[in-house]
Amino acid sequence: MTQRRQHPRGLFITLEGIEGCGKSTQAKLLGEFLRSEGYVTVETREPGGTPLAEKVRSVLLDRASEPIAPETEAFLIFAARRQHVMQVIEPALTKGAIVLCDRFSDSTLAYQGYARGLDLAMLRSLNRIATLAIIPDLTLVFDLPVATGLARRRSAPIQNRLDRESLQFHRKVRAGFLDLAKRHPGRMKVVAAGAALERVARAVAQAVAPMLSKHRRGAAEDSPSPRISSPHFSQARHALR
Ligand code: TMP
Question: What is the best residue among 24, 107, 153 to mutate for testing ligand 1's pocket, by most ligand atoms within 8 Å of CB?
């Protein structure tokens, strides 16, 4: 079950970054835009995305729980991911959808690897089992200073177990994402996330556009062209054009 699975018709886009980087808002805007253009999208997140994986997410993020060993944290994440890939991501890609996933494998490398110190090679190898070797077509890394992201998060009413890690921990996470982006320049694009929402959305659009034209061409080969929808959407629509 660990060999590379292909998803010839779908498009898999992941959104990554430190706490408070704005990726979830951008995922929503991108999803709205893509649907308004007639694309079929599946928006999902990790940890989570299925009822079982969402239960694992609650366990992982619960501040009141007992101390959790880094390995326990990693195993829980992989368990949730395996379920998520099987139940949601792979079927959606097989049907040709554009899957927008708020966090995926790169978060595990950044948080459990670069920040917690678990061995990256071990994480990659477990991750291959969890993902059925599915690799995103495009990963957007929303980057901004840790202090800015944490300030956003710490003013939120609810903070999870990882939000409350030290500044040092979150700096390692950020450095991890940037290092991964440097190592995978074809797949990973860094988006400056400190700017105004519309500007960030425009940068997202620029990064996604080449993938879309490929996807559209691919889709046209075996199914009717996507519907061109009526123009009426949020600011993001204009930003994304
Ligand atoms: P968020 O998606 O709402 O930002 O929160 C999810 C938290 O889970 C976040 O602190 C990062 C953490 N996480 C990991 O530590 N490893 C992972 O592989 C994933 C997907 C998330």
Answer: 107
Task: Determine if ligand 1 sits within 6 Å of the CB of residue 162.
Answer: yes
What integer best gives the mean pLDDT of the chain? 89
Task: Please give the Cα distance from 108 to 120 (Å, whole number).
Answer: 9
CA distances in angstroms from 179 to 16, 36, 140, 184, 226, listed in the order given: 13, 34, 13, 9, 36
**Structure confidence at residue 227 (pLDDT):** 40
- Residues 142-162: tens digit of each pLDDT: 999 999 999 988 888 888 898
Structural domain boundaries of the chain? 11-225
Q: In ligand 1, which atom is closest to the CA atom of 60?
A: 8
Q: Provide the whole-model pTM.
A: 0.90
What are the tens digits of pLDDT across the range 29-43? 999 999 999 999 999
CA atoms within 13 A on the CB side of 140: 29
Q: How far is the CA of 163 from the centre of ligand 1 (A)?
A: 9
What phi and psi, each to the nearest 5 degrees, are found at residue 88?
-120, -55
| Pocket perturbation via mutation, ligand 1, pick of 111, 118, 123 by most ligand atoms within 8 A of CB | 111
Beta strands in 2-117 (DSSP E): 11-17, 41-45, 98-102
Amino acid residing at 32:
E
Compute the distance between CA of residue 79 and CA of residue 52 in angstroms, rounded to an integer. 9
The whole-angstrom separation of Cα 74 and Cα 116 is: 10
Check if the beta carbon of residue 224 is closer than 8 Å to that of residue 46. no
**What confidence category does residue 237 fall into, taking pLDDT thresholds of 50, 70 and 90?**
low
11-225 topology per CATH: Rossmann fold (3.40.50)
